[in-house]
Design brief:
This protein is of the alpha/beta class. It folds into two domains: 218 residues, Rossmann fold (3-Layer(aba) Sandwich); 57 residues, no CATH class. It binds adenosine-5'-triphosphate. The site of adenosine-5'-triphosphate (ATP) has 13 residues, from helix 1. Pfam families: ABC_tran (PF00005). InterPro entries: AAA+_ATPase, ABC_transporter-like_ATP-bd, ABC_transporter_ATP-binding, P-loop_NTPase. It comes from Sphingorhabdus arenilitoris. One of its GO terms (molecular function) is ATP binding.
């Protein structure tokens, strides 16, 4: 599997405070990769260090095959957390300017920007100044400017913050469309649901350290599935087949799927005449896996929309 970004022992300190504390990371090429962590976990500092915007105090990183990540900036698109555009510039010129900064000819970037605005349903706003756009529209313009040069790697820092549900859905579609073209998309978030919907792989970061890096399915596999069983009978020899953690609720039985799997359990239920009315096996979600990996206290800081998302 090709690797888009590899980091080994990455450290970044600010006045003796370790914002990034010995990070090892592998981000596969062509996937959607989520960096999950609460506010202040070190996501932004890590992304900026990986991109070469700031240098680490220790450790190494390789970005698209280069140990000098900043030299790859023409094939990288980066949406920083703090959004900011020239308020008096027209939307289409903003995109052209951003494309030119990444090596495009101004005219090509302007033509492409106009086409991409059309595609995003904002063709009518191409010649409007940024200050005449809504917040969501301005964010779309900035996003188009981030990808107008067809980068191989897109890095989005908290891209969902400040977007309403409609614009969040549009952004999700855009991220998926880029990944379908083979582009690697990395985004940071403090909302587990965004990563669960979009990502193939994730890294979990808290207090500058990575506690998990790998496939979402591998994170979920750390927890055993839960079984919910309903029986006709309330008692009988079949009861001994239920594991020790079983919680009874009337005719319902809730327990962790035993290591031996579902077949021996079903056999015991049938032979013991439990009268199975229903049986469902629920795979743990990413939120439960996150709690198991990062702990309750870190999980409690997640999923909390920032104040601006509530506006
Ligand atoms: N330039 C800086 N100088 C001093 N401290 C900094 C600087 N940049 C970040 N920090 C500190 O490093 C820690 C990690 O910050 P960072 O912005 O990387 O976290 P984050 O996970 O992106 O959080 P958020 O989602 O709130 O932006 C924080 O405690 C922050 O105060």
């Amino acid at each position: 599997m090709a690797i888009a970004i590899e980091a080994r022992g990455l450290v970044k300190e600010f006045d003796g405070f370790r914002a990034v504390d010995g990070v090892d990371l592998n981000i596969p090429e062509g996937s959607i990769f989520g960096i999950l962590g609460p506010n202040g976990a070190g996501k932004t500092t890590m992304l900026r260090t990986l991109l070469g915007i700031i240098d680490p105090d220790a450790g190494t990183r390789t970005l698209l095959g280069s140990s000098k990540p900043i030299s790859q900036s023409r094939i990288v698109g980066y949406l920083p957390e703090e959004r900011g555009l020239y308020q008096s510039m027209r939307a289409v010129d903003t995109i052209a300017f951003m494309g030119a900064l990444r090596g495009m000819a101004l005219k090509d970037a302007r033509d492409k920007g106009r086409a991409m605005l059309e595609e995003a349903g904002l063709g009518y706003a191409a010649d409007r100044q940024i200050k005449q756009l809504s917040k969501g529209m301005a964010q779309t313009v900035q996003l188009i400017g981030t990808i107008v040069h067809d980068p191989k790697l897109i890095v989005l820092d908290e891209p969902f913050s400040g977007l309403d549900a409609l614009n969040q859905a549009k952004l999700e579609r855009m991220i998926r469309a880029q990944a379908e073209k083979g582009v690697t998309v990395i985004f940071s978030t403090h909302v587990i649901a965004h990563a669960e919907r979009l990502c193939e792989s994730i890294a979990i970061i808290a207090k500058g350290k990575i506690s998990f890096d790998g496939l979402v399915s591998a994170a979920r596999d750390r927890l055993r599935p839960q079984v919910h069983l309903e029986t006709e009978s309330l008692d009988g020899p079949w009861r001994s087949a239920l594991p020790a953690d079983c919680i009874a609720e009337g005719n319902w039985w809730h327990f962790t799927l035993p290591e031996t799997g579902v077949e021996p359990l079903l056999t015991a239920l049938v032979e013991g005449k439990a009268g199975v009315r229903s049986l469902s096996i629920e795979r743990p979600g990413l939120h439960d896996a996150f709690v198991a990996i990062a702990g309750e206290s870190v999980a409690a800081e997640m999923d909390q929309p920032l104040a601006e998302e509530l506006l």
